Amino acid sequence: MSLHINRAVAEARTNIALVKYWGKRNEALNLPAVGSISLTLDGLATRTEVRFDPSLAADTLNLNGTPAAGKPLTRVMRLLDLVRAASGRTGHAAVTSSNNFPTAAGLASSASAFAALALAATRAAGLSLDGAALSNLARRGSGSAARSIFGGFVEMKAGTQEDGGDSIAAPLATWDVRMVVGITGEGMKATLSTDGMRHTAETSPYYRAWVESHPADLAAGRAAIVHRDLQALGEVAERSCLSMHGSALAARPGILYWSGATVDAFHMIRALRSDGVGVWFTNDAGPHVKALCAPADAPRVEKALASVHGVVRTICCPPGAGAVVIEEGA
Amino acid sequence: MSLHINRAVAEARTNIALVKYWGKRNEALNLPAVGSISLTLDGLATRTEVRFDPSLAADTLNLNGTPAAGKPLTRVMRLLDLVRAASGRTGHAAVTSSNNFPTAAGLASSASAFAALALAATRAAGLSLDGAALSNLARRGSGSAARSIFGGFVEMKAGTQEDGGDSIAAPLATWDVRMVVGITGEGMKATLSTDGMRHTAETSPYYRAWVESHPADLAAGRAAIVHRDLQALGEVAERSCLSMHGSALAARPGILYWSGATVDAFHMIRALRSDGVGVWFTNDAGPHVKALCAPADAPRVEKALASVHGVVRTICCPPGAGAVVIEEGA
Fold first, then answer.
1. Helix A207-226 vs helix A230-249: angle between axes, to the nearest 10 degrees?
2. What is the pTM of this model?
3. Predicted-complex ipTM score
């Protein structure tokens, strides 16, 4: 227990899964049913300050400039409890967090948020965890946050241990590609990932086949990254995305995360590909579209995506670094 | 063999499957892997004349005012061959067919086309088949055509016989509902149903689960029609549609029949339902949207669908009658 350090600021970037995570094998410990492969993105970051303060009557959360309560605060408090248990530090904390992109709109804000929180909270509590331990802790806040601890291409292992000790991410490689994000709206998504995953696992007739077909996609994704084969990676990304949504669509009732703009953007990306541009789409639990391509093709992809009715903005993201400490001290 | 009748004109209406047909167990005989339940629609019809003429050097096809060759002509010739074999009539035929709606754009034009052709060709050849035999013959032209022989709600049996003798449709009930069709474009669809079904069956990890989960949807659809329970029917229709597309999306590469307007219309229909309107969507191998509702709600549904960006036209269809002979003689 360290009393002289009680404050830390950390930053983490979001990541986009190319081989998707969808479904938990243990919801309490946030253990995934399947592994995943992602790319951490530069430009879509969360900066979080954690300040342990003995004078506080309760943990507090300020999210993008506004005091937060309810579910977001509860999730933060649970992570702080884990940090308090691991560090022996007592007392409440004030957490101040801000994203430089829309919250809970399918841009994986929980990934960057819980990666930044895990790093800031452990440092503020006087702990200095290695990447694997940080990844394990971040996972307790959000499954995808385990990947944002690391930069570049990252693989999250589903793991087999009951306590989740091996449900952690590890870096695979760095490789200069681009992810062009097409923002299709700034609204909140209709079904949160955790709820959508549970509903899919419980009611979709395709969920078992999703889990069973997944290891082959992971192997293909890993091999594509090892060989720097953008076409192979793009193909596995597109099919993993469509399979994830196909399984969710078949839930009862079906979950439809896409908007019209999402689908029109998918067609636009396939049309670009027919024209010889190496670009493949992916998309998560929201309406935004992400296009994977080589750096040289990014301007053309960005222009094409921006021309789709309903796409309000594009962001071109190079690979990003892992979570970093920005400040620490009293 | 009858020489004095050599010409007949028949009309058949399209139908929309509420419990979907997707996948064949025998492509040569066009035997479906799963049964289906449909509604035959008034207002979307094909009128076909077949004229057996000994002076013709070959079968000919005029489709919507234009001489047709290639695949459409080949499919028509194959059906005429079956009629010639069954009737003993020799000689070629001139077939003239026209739709009052866009061809091959996901409005099941092959359903009305082959139902009308089966009826017109058999009558022109001097045969008078019952509904079951006509349904069996129409199926050889197009799986969904087997249902358009009958009016109202119709069930197509997958059947178990190797020769397809029990792969036929039969009427279930008549019940006054409305199907509001939202036309999202007049273009040809990208992947024809037969090709899409084959690709899904061969490559989708979800295809087996689709086939296995299907009998429960058929039973639910049948029960809903027996009890005139529009909500139960709508729910099974929506989930059968999303499951069919979910399976096709997971094919490799994934098949995406929807346009942006399709998906925006789905959301619009769900929003109407949240507002208390009893309306449910379905959609086939193309971008158009079909909304099932009570007659009294149809004007509101039509107006809402028409307001969706990309929906160019709406058609409100009551249940339609089965295939009928319009003229016959020399």
1. 170
2. 0.94
3. 0.93
